[in-house]
Amino acid sequence: MKPIPDHIKENLDVLFVGFNPSIRSSETGHHFANPTNRFWSILYKAKITDRKYLPTEDEKLLDLGYGFTNIVARPTKNAQEISSDEYRIGRDELKAKIAKFQPKIVCFVGKGVYQQYSGRKKASWGKQSESIIPGVVDFVAPSSSGLVRMGIDDIAEIYSEIPRLIDMINFHHE
């Protein structure tokens, strides 16, 4: 199983951070490629994208200001297979990436991803009151995995805060 490439560049509006690639993502080389994963539908429903993109188009989202990475690069069947050492190394690498590329918002796709990154036990949905990397907004969203019991409309409602946040940040930077 091989890791998949990050899609990342400087000054992105949003860097989406998942746990780690699925087996399907590893096989295809694309983010959120498992057919049971609702990520691409959520982005469209939340009005983050103007249409439902396919996992094979993940790189095209860089042009829209959206990037992708994971806290752990090793593909697994599920996040339970990730070791604490892998999380520790991944957390350090992720902090370095965020500090280097300075996205406006880092969206953690899953509360557990944020908890591993931040070391905080508690997190609410949406914008966090304190950021780990100064000048970058931390945003916690539900995982898009088909295993999550929340309905897709409820999940999309949380993600729909992102375009409003981008507008606010851009307004303050003008």
Automatic annotation (TrEMBL):
EC id: 3.2.2.-
Coiled-coil region(s): none
Uracil-DNA glycosylase-like domain residues: 5-150
GO MF, any single term: hydrolase activity, acting on glycosyl bonds
Domain of life: Bacteria
The keyword DNA damage appears for this protein: yes
Membrane-spanning residues: none
InterPro entries tied to this protein: MUG/TDG (IPR015637), Uracil-DNA_glycosylase-like (IPR005122), Uracil-DNA_glycosylase-like_sf (IPR036895)
Enzyme class name: hydrolase
Keywords recorded for this protein, A-Z: DNA damage, DNA repair, Glycosidase, Hydrolase
Full protein name: TDG/mug DNA glycosylase family protein
Species this chain originates from: Lederbergia wuyishanensis
Organism lineage string: Bacteria, Bacillati, Bacillota, Bacilli, Bacillales
